[in-house]
Every structure is written in C-alpha cells, then in structure tokens.
Design brief:
single chain, nine-stranded mixed sheet, mainly beta
Length: about 100
Amino acid sequence: MVLEVITPEKKVFQGEVEAVQFPGINGSFQVLENHAPLISALAPGKIKIDLKNQDSKYEAFASAVESDSSNAKLIRLSVKGGVVEIRNNHIIVLAD
C-alpha cells in the first residue's frame, strides 16, 4: 500500500506501508492491504505506520517522523485532526 500524509504546509510522508493505525474520531482503527474504500475523520493523536521494509526511505520527512527504537519498521506521525481516504491500496491523509 502507498501512504501519503499531507498538511497545508507540505507533504510530511509518502511511502510503502504494510499497515497503518489511525486515531479516528470514534476510536482508533487499522488499515491493511486490500481494505474496503473508506473516508473517515481523524481525531488528534498519532498515526502509527508499519513500513513495508526496514530500509524505507523516509529521511526526507524526518522532522515530522517519530521512530520507534524497539522496531525499525515502526514510525509515528502526530496529527491534530484531519481526514483519511482509502481506495485501491492508496491512502491519502489530509492532516492538520
């Protein structure tokens, strides 16, 4: 799957992922490959991203990314809210 996280100022992440957990307004939810199409509002919180492989290139977005010291494939992005659209293994997040 491809994940893109975009804020009004810039694109903060783009890359191949295995799974993504979102802070939905009615609770967190996870998206895996071949998920049904969905549009959902996001609450303030962290997007938990399981990268496709450990060598994924996200250094260009390093200022916005919080890495996990116990798992090199796991990163987090803080959001103040926003909207996520999932369609055809392409996830687009418009975040605040």
